[in-house]
Structure formats: structure tokens, C-alpha cells
């Protein structure tokens, strides 16, 4: 009994000390939590903001016009002519066709007259519209979705996108990108499309330069060649073939 009493006393003192320590730690934790909570909330907000990516103006510009183009191309109430006319108007509103056409001609553009450049620009636009109609009409289940962007300069943005469900790729996703520049009025304008890293403007420039080298730099002849290619694409278009078959029957 003599030794038990001090033991009980020590135990009691230890319990009091432990409770005091816990109380002190709890108070300090609450103070620390109140002090740090604004910063913790801010950090959480940043993490959530990074996950919930907000579209940039260039990304919105591309996605909205992709949606507009698909709506036109898939509108069964429109005739082929109406669809082409509306798509042509949409393309003219978002793409600087003359600027792109000038680029694709390379050094040969320096010797072209204004009339030649206008004719070539018109033929180039018709070619692009026909390619779009043919590709989308032959792939009704495909979708094109913007996935992000890279800012090269304040007025130069590469908008990335992914094409899914393309029959030509056996359903495999295709990486695409759209180069967006600012025009003279500060508005967004499309100047190039890339497919799996290959620039269409650069590819066309190589094609046209090679053709012009073999045809004495004759831009008017290249314009006619582009018109012939456009006509051939239209004739080879499955949707136009079915339309002609239906009208003949």
C-alpha cells in the first residue's frame, strides 16, 4: 500500500500533463488552421481551375466554327448547292483565303497580277470547300473536338484538336491543329490546318511550286489545274454520285 499511493499520484499527474498537452496542441492546430485556411482554399482553387480547363478565345473560335461547319454539312434539308454556298460563306468569314493562297504560291506570287491572284484565291477556296464536303460527307460518324492550344505569340495561336471516328483512319483518332492569326482588324482568322503535324499550307506550297516549275510559272494555268482538280473531286464524291443516280431514275 505504501508504494501504491505514489504510483496513483504519479499516474494522476501524468494524465493531467497529457490532457494539458493535448489541449495546447488542439488550440495550436485550430490557430494554424484558421491562419492557413485562406491559403489552403486558394491552393485548392488553383488545382481545380487547372483541371477544369477554360477555353481560350482562339479555342472557342475554332470549336464554334467546327460546330457550324458540321451543322451545315450534316443538314439533310439543304441541297448540295445550298450546302456548298453556305459552307463557302462560312469559310470566307473565318479563313484569309487570299493570304493562304499567296503563301502557297511562294516566290511565284511576286510576278502575279492582282487579277491572277484573285482568280487563284477563288479557285483555292473552291478546292478547300470541296475537300471539306467530300471528307465529311464520306464520314458521317466522325467528330472533331478542340483539346487545347499553344500560344506562339500574342497574335499567333496553334489550336489542337482530335478527329475521332474517321473511316479513312479505321476509327483511330487523328491529331489536328489550326493556326489562328489576327487580321488587320484584330479578329481571329484561320491560316493553316495541320494533320498529324503536317501543315496543309506547306504541303500545298510544295505541290504548287513543283507544278509551276514544270509549267513555266504560269499561275493562270495553275488556277485552271486547281479548278479541274475540284471538278474531279466533285465527280468522285459518293454523295454527288448518289444524287445523280436518284435524279436519273
Explained architecture:
This protein is an alpha+beta fold and 249 residues long. The protein folds into 2 domains: 1-52; 57-248, Nuclear Transport Factor 2, Chain: A, CATH 3.10.450.710. 63% of the residues lie in helices and 16% in strands. It is built from 8 helices and 5 strands, in the order αααααβββββααα. Strands 1-2-3-4-5 form a 5-stranded antiparallel beta sheet. α2 (57-73) runs antiparallel to α3 and α3 (80-94) crosses α5 (114-137). The longest helix is centred in the first third of the chain and has 48 residues, at 4-51. The radius of gyration is 32 Å and the shape is globular. The chain starts with a helix and ends with a helix.
Defining traits:
single chain; about 250 residues; alpha+beta; Nuclear Transport Factor 2, Chain: A; five-stranded antiparallel sheet; about 65% helix; disordered N terminus; disordered C terminus
Distance between the termini: 117 Å
Structural class: alpha+beta
Number of strands: 5
- How many structural domains can be distinguished in the coordinates? 2
Helix content: 55-70%
The stretches of 5 or more residues where confidence is low (pLDDT under 50) are 1-8, 25-52, 241-249
Overall mean pLDDT score?
Answer: 77
Name the CATH superfamily classification of the largest domain. Answer: Tgt2/MlaC
Classified by CATH, the class of the largest domain is Alpha Beta
Order of helices and strands: HHHHHEEEEEHHH
Overall geometric form:
globular
